[in-house]
Amino acid sequence: MRVEKDVFVRGNGVRLPSTLRVADAIASGECQPRLVRRTEVESVAVSLGESAAEMAVAAARIALERAGSTGADIDLILHADTYHQGQDLWPVASYVQRETVRNTCSAIEIRQMSCGGMAAIDLATSYLCAGPHRTDALLTTADRFCEPGINRWSTDPGTPYADGATAIVLSRRGGYARLMSIVMYADSELEQVHRGDEPFSPAPFTHRMPVDFEAAKQAFTRQFGLSFAINRVNGSQRFTIKQALADADMEMHEVDWIVLPHFGYRRLESMYFREFGIDPAKTTWDWSRTVGHLGAGDQFASLGYLADTGRARPGQTCLLVGIGAGYTWGAAVLQFTDAPRWATAGSGLPAAG
Fold it and tell me: What are the phi and psi torsion angles at 37 (to 5°)?
């Protein structure tokens, strides 16, 4: 979808708790070397007790302050996540709303796995453009991937999982990056990839704990074959990215920055670097390898990194790419229109909190 009306990223925030070096995790016996050998990930963000919901509030407060947005400005709150947020049977988006703007707009949770942040951009853009008096939307993501339910190293081998939260404020009032296009695409024929062949259960973790995505994928490939999944994933990803670029009247080689999911290097190389001829130097790989996979928040985090450190300059463009179980793909093109007033020269993202 070409974004015909002005929609901007006006503010961004991130909450990354303490850092765990992969080498230290191996030395302590927490992580088996074979699980990270080819990821080239150096460290991951790890929460020592802070819940996903609490981290989301911290990131949201930063984004709101930077955007200069108050409860009177925010017309929609969307919170994207993939795992337990700290309480059971509980509307986490309402908690984010209460702890930040305390207004009366809709506050809604999105659970579309790792593509949830991209889905939030798509939905919020349509919502803001549908009403003449709507101005800002607060989008947050957060996850804490911890045992007993998740093993950050082995649940999804090849992608070390990280704890943290991100936030952006989308606005019709202006900002530092204008949204040019957003495309979402789904292929439910691949839904079973992360479900496997286990029967439906009455409660969480009935079949196994921690969650084992690899076992589910193997069950799927036994039934449908590996090439079936690979061909559908590659085809859907190519369509989504090419459509987003076409809607922005661009080609891949014209894009200055490309934000990819925070996967391990081997997975990035096979899915993106070789497939699309992407130079890793045009991505945020050098930073994302020190953070880990933030569930639905990779795109917001890396976009904020480019803006905060001054690496992205006014006039440059950025392609955001997302993929999530289900399967869902998302791609968006933005153009940096101004340097955020809080941006600083440097190579690292300031620690939050």
Answer: -55, -40
Is the pLDDT score of 348 beyond 70? Answer: no
- Judge contact between 312 and 256, C-beta under 8 A: yes
The answer to whether 349 touches 305, Cβ cutoff 8 Å, is yes
Could you tell me the two tokens for 335?
A: 């153009």
> How many Å is the Cα radius of gyration of the chain?
19
Give tens-digit pLDDT for 244-287: 999 999 999 999 999 999 999 999 999 999 999 999 999 999 99
Q: What are residue 36's phi and psi, to 5 degrees?
A: -125, 5
What is the pLDDT confidence band of residue 346, given thresholds at 50, 70 and 90?
very low
Reduced to 3 states, what is the DSSP secondary structure of residue 105?
Answer: coil
CATH of 1-353, one of 3.30.470.20, 3.40.47.10, 3.40.1260.10, 3.40.50.620: 3.40.47.10
Give the relative orientation of helices 213-224 and 226-247 as an angle to the nearest 10 degrees.
Answer: 100
The CA distance from 347 to 39, in Å, is: 21
Q: Are 346 and 310 in contact (CB under 8 A)?
A: yes
Burial of 206 (0-12, 13-18, 19+ CB in 10 A): exposed
- Mean pLDDT across the chain: 95
Q: What is the pTM of this model?
A: 0.95
Q: Summarize pLDDT for 23-63 with one digit per residue, the tens.
A: 999 999 999 999 999 999 999 999 999 999 999 999 999 99
Tell me the domain boundaries of the chain: 1-353
Residue 317 and residue 254: Cα distance in Å, rounded? Answer: 8
- Helix, strand, coil content of the chain in percent (nearest 5): 35, 20, 40
